[in-house]
Amino acid sequence: MVARPLVPGIYAPLPTFFKPDTEDVDLQLMAAHAVRLIKAGVKPLLSGTMGEAHHLSHEERVDVIKAVRVALDDAGFAEVPIIAGSGAGSTRETIQLSKEAADAGADYVIVICSGYFAGALVSNRKALKAFWSEVSAKSPIPVIIYNYPGAAGGIDLDSDLITELAEECPNLCGVKLTCGNVGKLTRICATVSEPAFASAHPRQNADAPFIVLGGFTDFILTSSMVNGHGAITGLANIAPATVAKLFDISEKAKSDLSLLPEAQRLQGIVARADFTIAKTGIAGTKYLLEKLYGYGGNCRRPLPPIEPAAATAIWEHPHTQELVKLEREFAGKT
To answer: Has residue 279 been placed in a domain?
Structure first.
């Protein structure tokens, strides 16, 4: 049994922080950021897109997992799971990275299909299905499907294929939909969130049910209403207390409709901020972390830092400021 169950909620794909002079990974800062997020109600995902996974060596990915696991345990969060990205260019290397992640202390891996040969894969359902089937069968820990056409050369799994994979691969434990397709999420949840699904298609590990997670914060309320399970979202790095609160009130509104207007209000603020801030990419998120919390730094080259004019514009934007005000309120700051 998995010691740290995979549960609905908000997960943040942590940026990887680098030392300014050497571009070495700043493991101490990674660990501190993970602990800060957990205290606000957000769980960590390491070496994802936001974490510049393709800029990290195998050894660096392992070191990040180990450092964060030690920090969580030392801070009293031994029950909090770690999700780690293990996507790579080939099926073989993806499986290797999954095994290394498990050995380092990760509880789950999230896997994207490389878009380098997207021309040969994008319309080949058989090959795409075979990829996640083989990876999940050979991974020692449960696997989350990462559907992000923007980072995979346009590869975009439809709801039928994701549902088939969920039914046929017992070591798959979920999907992240960074395609932002709410209809797709609704269709998948209509199958996998039904009570009968778990008994008809039991997981290899009972602590790792198949959950459906959005890749943005702008449809968390919608996701809750169709029995989705939360989100993995970069915005939770910047405003963890706010995003966690939005998920909590959205879940409660399903049984208490008097909470719906407040959930709608929060969803509007968060959705506008997510749309605005996401345009600045990883560099923008790191800049805002620096502005708000005193750390962030630059991306690993060749990714450029945010331009000064763009940095000023994103900080001063009304959508950002509205979110910052809300985060300070929920985090108990003045």
So the answer is: no
Domains in the chain, number = 1
Domain that holds residue 183: 9-256
Angle between helices 58-74 and 27-39 (to 10 degrees): 50
Contacts of 168 (CB under 8 A, 6+ apart): 133
DSSP 120: H
**CATH number of 215's domain:** 3.20.20.70
The model's pLDDT over 157-207, given as tens digits with 9 standing for 90+, comes to 999 999 999 999 999 999 999 999 999 999 999 999 999 999 999 999 999
pLDDT tens column, 301-316: 999 999 999 999 999 9
CA distance 63 to 253: 40
Catalytic residue positions? Answer: 176
Nearest to 143 by CA among 117, 122, 162: 162
Give domain status of residue 73, yes or no: yes
HSE of 99, CA atoms in CB hemisphere, 13 A: 9
